[in-house]
Amino acid sequence: MTVQLASILGLWGSYLPSFMRGLVITMEITGLGLAVAVVLGAILAGFKLSKFKALRVIATVYVDIIRSIPVLVLLFLAYYGLGQLGLTLSGIASATAALGAFYAALLCEIFRGGVQGVERGQREAADALGLGRVSGFVRVILPQAVLRILPPSTNQLSNIIKDSSLVVTIGVADLMARSYEASATTFEPMDMFVLAGLIYMALYLVIARAIGRWELNVQRRRG
Amino acid sequence: MSSDVVVELDGVRKCFGPRVIFDDVSLSVHRSEVVAVIGPSGAGKSTLIRCINQLNTFEKGVIRVLGHEVYGTEEGRPPLRRDDLRRLRTEIGMVFQTFNLFPHLSVMKNVMLAPQRVKGRSEAEAAAQAQELLEMIGLSHRKDAYPRQLSGGEQQRVAICRALAMEPEVMLFDEPTSMLDPELVGEVLAAIRRLAVDGMTMILVTHEMMFAKEIADTVVVVADGGIAEMGPAKEVLSTPKTERARSFLERVLLHTGGDTGPQAAASEGGFDAASGGFDDPTLSWSREVDEKGLR
């Protein structure tokens, strides 16, 4: 038993540097995809809350279409599909586009709900004080919406981290690809995929804990 | 519009969809005048004052606040420009039934926000002013607290400071005490009384009849789609001339537990308006009323 454990740990140790390089790629894809999703999601949420019907329709159609398509299909469309049309994207760029497009649709709904969930009286108080639309939103509505938006967004973050592993299919050397490669070389798929799983888990838990702690601090401060 | 008229409503009609809430409401509020708006719930008292700062639009008529004019949406005038609307609102302070303090900001920051963002005051100037207002209202020791850490009465007093920080020409109070526990009503009324004594022009929607009688110069009874009666506070409250006003007042005074009709209530006036001491939040007013069994 101890011998076995030692050999697993030895194996893990020898592949850890490779896995860590993969983790960096995974974090890169996740971070870029998330950035696109947040920006695009915020724009779409703005459309949904707009008084102009055309913008609301655009956002609704986008959300309905995109979230019904598997991320893998979006990824292949970006990587192979756009390539066929002459727009060749790198693996990482394709992943950023696919994850960004897909999670924008999900975050859009979360953002919209967060903003609409702020009590109407808050907007009225800002209006009555003569705060403009921009200051009223930035200083009054947004800081309150953020606390409503964070918990469901953190959940989506776990999904986006996991979906980043789909890039294994287009040859990007992320954490998933590294573990796949290691299992093929060592003929120890169990050990290698367990290690990959543990690293994915650790990544999510560290980020989620950090966000959760920040959130708790803010809430505690505000009574 | 004579020079000391601060707020003037002329033939205002408000509808929600097909339902007319009130029609042909005309009213002038002079500088330093305190107007209490009373009437049965659902009569549109709150809506009426919310039209003044355009939290609600209205269909017909015109509302003038100092130099600003707002026409009803069906008067065929172009809608108010956004900047003009903001300028109008900076002349008007508003205190809400539900306080509506900004929960993510400390007491100080709640009071400082609008002067900084709207009037372009520096942080130091805004802080000095907020400090002064909070001291006046007896809450400077709570300046770093957040709204949720305050009692309802304290929150409402901060809300009053927040509105005053914009140095408005007129204050609107939308049932400022009706969400409060009875023992917290007095401290908020004391704050309002203090403003009246200082000469603030105020329009106050309230269910506190005794308070209305004490501080209001004019009482407006809103009922059945319009102003049922309007006049000097003591007259309207003790000897209402119209049947609608009389029946409303009788119901209110019965409900508040007094064996007093409007007549008897009148003779019990005599509250000292000048005694609104903030150092003593346990206020003479609420105690007196308690003793008289009116609350």
UniProtKB/TrEMBL annotation, chain A:
<feature type="transmembrane region" description="Helical">
    <location>
        <begin position="57"/>
        <end position="79"/>
    </location>
</feature>
<feature type="transmembrane region" description="Helical">
    <location>
        <begin position="20"/>
        <end position="45"/>
    </location>
</feature>
<feature type="domain" description="ABC transmembrane type-1">
    <location>
        <begin position="23"/>
        <end position="211"/>
    </location>
</feature>
<keyword id="KW-0029">Amino-acid transport</keyword>
<dbReference type="InterPro" id="IPR035906">
    <property type="entry name" value="MetI-like_sf"/>
</dbReference>
<feature type="transmembrane region" description="Helical">
    <location>
        <begin position="85"/>
        <end position="107"/>
    </location>
</feature>
<keyword id="KW-1003">Cell membrane</keyword>
<comment type="similarity">
    <text>Belongs to the binding-protein-dependent transport system permease family. HisMQ subfamily.</text>
</comment>
<keyword id="KW-1133">Transmembrane helix</keyword>
<dbReference type="Pfam" id="PF00528">
    <property type="entry name" value="BPD_transp_1"/>
</dbReference>
<dbReference type="InterPro" id="IPR000515">
    <property type="entry name" value="MetI-like"/>
</dbReference>
<keyword id="KW-0472">Membrane</keyword>
<protein>
    <submittedName>
        <fullName>Amino acid ABC transporter permease</fullName>
    </submittedName>
</protein>
<feature type="transmembrane region" description="Helical">
    <location>
        <begin position="192"/>
        <end position="212"/>
    </location>
</feature>
<dbReference type="InterPro" id="IPR043429">
    <property type="entry name" value="ArtM/GltK/GlnP/TcyL/YhdX-like"/>
</dbReference>
<dbReference type="InterPro" id="IPR010065">
    <property type="entry name" value="AA_ABC_transptr_permease_3TM"/>
</dbReference>
<keyword id="KW-0813">Transport</keyword>
<keyword id="KW-0812">Transmembrane</keyword>
Automatic annotation (TrEMBL), chain B:
<keyword id="KW-0472">Membrane</keyword>
<dbReference type="Pfam" id="PF00005">
    <property type="entry name" value="ABC_tran"/>
</dbReference>
<dbReference type="GO" id="GO:0005524">
    <property type="term" value="F:ATP binding"/>
</dbReference>
<keyword id="KW-1003">Cell membrane</keyword>
<dbReference type="InterPro" id="IPR027417">
    <property type="entry name" value="P-loop_NTPase"/>
</dbReference>
<dbReference type="InterPro" id="IPR003593">
    <property type="entry name" value="AAA+_ATPase"/>
</dbReference>
<keyword id="KW-0067">ATP-binding</keyword>
<feature type="compositionally biased region" description="Low complexity">
    <location>
        <begin position="264"/>
        <end position="280"/>
    </location>
</feature>
<comment type="similarity">
    <text>Belongs to the ABC transporter superfamily.</text>
</comment>
<keyword id="KW-0029">Amino-acid transport</keyword>
<dbReference type="InterPro" id="IPR003439">
    <property type="entry name" value="ABC_transporter-like_ATP-bd"/>
</dbReference>
<dbReference type="InterPro" id="IPR030679">
    <property type="entry name" value="ABC_ATPase_HisP-typ"/>
</dbReference>
<feature type="domain" description="ABC transporter">
    <location>
        <begin position="7"/>
        <end position="249"/>
    </location>
</feature>
<protein>
    <submittedName>
        <fullName>Amino acid ABC transporter ATP-binding protein</fullName>
    </submittedName>
</protein>
<dbReference type="InterPro" id="IPR017871">
    <property type="entry name" value="ABC_transporter-like_CS"/>
</dbReference>
<dbReference type="InterPro" id="IPR050086">
    <property type="entry name" value="MetN_ABC_transporter-like"/>
</dbReference>
<keyword id="KW-0813">Transport</keyword>
<keyword id="KW-0547">Nucleotide-binding</keyword>
<feature type="region of interest" description="Disordered">
    <location>
        <begin position="258"/>
        <end position="295"/>
    </location>
</feature>
